[in-house]
Amino acid sequence: EISPVHLLLAGLNEDQQRAVTAPEQPTVVFAGPGSGKTTVLTRRVLYLLNRGTPAHQLMVVTFTRAAAKEMKERLAQILPDKVHKLAIGTFHSLFLMMLRDAGEQVYPLLSGVQQTRWMRQFLEERGQPVDDETVSTFLNQISLCKGNIILPDRMKVQKEKNILFRDLYMAYEEKKRAAGLWDYDDILLAFYHKCQHSRTLSEWQERFQHLLVDEFQDINFIQYHILLKLTQRHRRLFAVGDDDQSIYGFRGSDPSFMLQLKQDFPELRQIVLSVNYRSTDEIIRLADQLIQHNRMRQSKPRAGTGTRGLPVQWMDPENEEQEAEQILARLRDGMETAVLYRTSTQARALIDALVRKDIPFSVSTGDLSFYRRWQVQDILAYIQLAFNPNDLDALIRIINKPKRYLFGEGWVEAGWALARKSGRTVLEVLPELPCLETYQIHYLNELREMVPTIRRFSAVRAVRYICEMIGYSRYLEKYAEETGNDRDLVSEPVDELLLAAEHCSDGQALLMHAEKVNQMVKNNEQSPQVKLMTLHKAKGLEFDRVFLIGLHAMVLPHRRSLQVPESRKRAAWEEERRLLYVGITRAKSELYLSISKERQGKRVGISPFAREIGYGGAVDSFCQQIQSVNEISELRKSTPKKTLTSQPQMRFAKEEVSPGMHLIHNRFGKGAVIRITSIEGVAPGRKVLVRFHDHTLTLHYELSRQLG
Ligand code: ATP
Ligand code: MG
């Protein structure tokens, strides 16, 4: 049954209540992290249902599938029999469903793997460099164009690079059409075009009279214009967002659409939420200090709940290995933990350590395992070939890295036949293939001689040998030069692999380890002790404890993000700062910022952002003992009276449990309440976070009350 309104609003502050119960007209909730935007959106759904809005009239748009899933779960707890009638999902999934329901022809979706394969093929056919970066850059660019409704036949191009791009774009579209497939952007484009037909549009407008959108700051051009169409008649748009958390600019997202709403809906109501319920004061203060440095932003009132916690801690391990050890040491207490980083390579040392210790972890979907980076795969292919000289896949992979001038695939058949006839391996017979030029024979002889020696080497030496003696490093340098890529960026995975290899006895052990990691990253643990993800993937989420690793120069802001025309430098710089801001504001009670002295074996600089938030010479030692129970209660005494209990909307906290309170647990002994982690759903199933001597635990409120 649907809950009565007062229950629906339970635990919400006045502004949040105002948002939930806002009149049915365009409304935008504009507020900082942790202020309850997603909470309000969820309650708004309940509120509308409670007012008698039929469930099928609601459309709720989330930014990711994971977020949609979570919202469905939250609502299912309260409305188990209604939730399946609600349209909750990403723009793509919702629009696909609507097109289908409208009897439109929809096409199967092209997989990411297939997309990549096609682009590789196009590049190869045009004699262009083929590597993961180039491939994904072009695919991103195509997506960016489609998101702005720029189709290839309407592109005006002059520069040579753009001519290539348009050519690839056309080839891609053509191949897709011929195969009868769609990519994600085709869904939006098809939907956009369908919106131009007034009959379908008005059917849609009638069917979905309420549109609710989370993470509005990351909307792009085509999505925004579709929304305008859909809401034209009933004008019931409810959008929540935070311009400071817009981090997908590189994909065409643009927070200025939040401002444009005012022009497109003159009757727009704007509601501002100002209390961050998620984080302790220490974390909020640090986040604020950082974001103040951005110029392109709307300022918003920002307050905490007055919850004091541990100071934000800086870690300064010697290197990534030590960093991983320190993080692992912290995992034992079972507190919900996430480790966030700018680029997935940064997680390599930690993932290796977790795999070695068999600690369950998860990595955000879509993140590539380090061992699947193309450079790493190239080197591993050499090692594979050393142990199995008949490994054709490995051989094909490395044959021209560096160039040995053996092109096409005819040689594979010929080599295989020759090997079989003579009872030798393919690697061995290569130089004896028919019709080779002298220089080819020379290179292939060299390959045949050198590869088998790898078997005798330690893993580190094997990698070195492949790079320095066999010439793989030379290949990478040339490659960087030809493609105009940053040399250091291109060779970065090699440096990282050298570090990884230190833990493996020989090449074979390295191969086995890589395979194990790939498996674990793919299988993604269901109940992980720790979640690893890039800053981009952390948006909208929250965790009791967050480690933010690798606050190095050239990482944040990332060097690649700064490779933009001068006019866009500032915007790019600010987007990187927002990325760090998103990371910091994921933490509820504990935040660790880590800057190892070395990265990939080299001394490295510190992120300018770290300085902005007070990283100075005097670094608090990471191992500074956790404050004892007594210290925490001291801390509480000095806290200004503006605590959770003094907030009217938190009246329930007047009961026994409050932060700083002592309690005795029959298993863990004396503890002190650090914070009250509240509520989701209407029935407040409250929990408290309690620090015991050497554990931190989340306990149920009821339980704690008895303990107290
Ligand atoms: P983000 O910008 O990061 O997406 P958000 O604005 O969507 O954040 P929510 O995720 O909705 O914020 O809420 C943050 C946390 O605060 C959640 O744990 C939520 O349960 C809690 N919360 C929200 N409103 C209140 C409230 N009035 N009292 C106590 N806790 C609240
Ligand atoms: Mg949110």
From TrEMBL:
Q: What Pfam family is a match, any one?
A: UvrD_C
Identify the residues that the record assigns to the UvrD-like helicase ATP-binding domain, covering every copy: 10-280
**Domain UvrD-like helicase C-terminal, first and last residues per copy:** 281-540
Query: Which Gene3D superfamilies does the UniProt entry name for this protein?
Result: 1.10.10.160, P-loop containing nucleotide triphosphate hydrolases, PCRA, domain 4
What InterPro entries does this protein's entry cite?
DExx_box_DNA_helicase_dom_sf, DNA_helicase_UvrD-like_C, DNA_helicase_UvrD/REP, P-loop_NTPase, UvrD-like_ATP-bd
Q: Which UniProt keywords apply?
A: ATP-binding, DNA-binding, Helicase, Hydrolase, Isomerase, Nucleotide-binding
Catalytic activity reported: ATP + H2O = ADP + phosphate + H(+); Couples ATP hydrolysis with the unwinding of duplex DNA by translocating in the 3'-5' direction
Molecular functions (GO terms) = 3'-5' DNA helicase activity; ATP binding; DNA binding; hydrolase activity
The UniProt annotation places ATP binding at 31-38
List its EC numbers. Answer: 5.6.2.4
- Per the similarity annotation, which family is this? Belongs to the helicase family. UvrD subfamily.
Q: What is this protein called?
A: DNA 3'-5' helicase
Species of provenance: Paenactinomyces guangxiensis
